[in-house]
Amino acid sequence: xxxxxxxxxxxxxxxxxxxxxxxxxxxxxxxxxxxxxxxxxxxxxxxxxxxxxxxxxxxxxxxxxxxxxxxxxxxxxxxxxxxxxxxxxxxxxxxxxxxxxxxxxxxxxxxxxx
Length: 114
Hints:
8 strands, Jelly Rolls
């Protein structure tokens, strides 16, 4: 992925993508820590996952993200356009995406990764 990816610095509190944003990139934490969360109707934040260096995220069968990802500390994120995935430059089957997600977060079944 790195050969086809751009690397971006993220500041603490910066949103990588928000719920409702279009799915345009595949992401990987290079350095730092991020949280994946959903906002509850009463304004509370429900954290779904913490993303650590090496974790892949952002792949989704839907056209829009269902969760928000935000940097917890300053760090870097690499990202590649999903159009490359569709064109064949990056070929990941649904099973491979689940396998990557499962390997990046041990003990979790991430069949519906966002």
